[in-house]
Specification:
With 226 residues, this protein is an alpha+beta fold. Strands 1, 2, 3, 4, 5, 6, 7, 8, 9 and 10 form a 10-stranded mixed sheet that branches. The chain is globular and about 55 Å long.
Length: 226
């Protein structure tokens, strides 16, 4: 088992990483993480049912402590039962999650969001992209899978917010697996063969409390042939 060495710089030349994988361990500051998380949860919450939104309002009103400003990032998440988590994805890969494709960020509603987004999208190798929000509950995880080369482009970038998880990569043709710890505020970029020659999964870290995690996934749109 190979476990990655960590760096605040992209690791394009490090022998610790499979080819095509770049990693920024602490790209976003704690304050930037809060802005991204609040904006992402806002979009996901607005897409849920009226019943779910009423449930969240009732929870916040049930105790003065519930409405206090959180002292850490994990405190921004409400309890699992306040969200409409799905138990299984249509392809069986993702468990205990909610998700959405993001058409536009709520920049007018969140101060400083625009500047944080500029830093985020500056990491993208190209700008014709699709943004996807994936919120995993405390029991949430992603089973091993290989990206569909026909349904996506050449690269995918992921921002981790909240609970630390493990990115587990297993070569499909044999060889030692590889693990990368994804702390909150980190960013990884996968492109080329690493997406299609490794099974990917997102797992809980052994022996730790399981908190919620939200990831911002950005990928280039696949080219269309006329």
């Amino acid at each position: 088992m190979h476990r990655a060495c960590l760096s605040n710089q992209p690791t394009t030349t490090s022998v610790c990483y499979p080819g095509g994988l770049e990693f920024w361990q602490a790209y976003f500051t704690p304050e930037e993480q809060k802005i991204l998380l609040r904006a992402s949860l806002h979009k996901l919450d607005m897409s849920e049912s009226i019943k779910s939104r009423k449930r969240r309002r009732a929870y916040l009103k049930s105790s003065p402590e519930n409405a206090l400003e959180p002292t850490d990032l994990q405190g921004i998440f409400l309890p699992d039962e306040c969200y409409e988590f799905q138990e299984g994805h249509y392809d069986g890969v993702i468990r205990h999650y909610r998700e959405m494709h993001l058409a536009a960020w709520p920049e007018a509603e969140f101060e400083s969001l625009s500047s944080v987004l500029k830093r985020l999208y500056a990491l993208c190798p190209s700008q014709n992209v699709q943004t996807h929000l994936l919120h995993l509950g405390t029991r949430g995880y992603i089973l091993p899978h290989i990206d569909n080369i026909h349904a996506s482009g050449t690269w995918i970038l992921g921002v981790s917010l909240g609970n630390e998880r493990l990115l587990h990569l297993k070569p499909v043709r044999g060889g030692p697996p590889f693990e990368l710890i994804l702390p909150s505020g980190s960013v990884y970029l996968q492109r080329g063969g690493v997406r299609y020659t490794y099974e990917h999964s997102i797992e809980h870290k052994p022996g730790e409390d399981h908190g919620q995690r939200l990831s911002i996934m950005i990928r280039d749109l696949p080219s269309t042939s006329l």
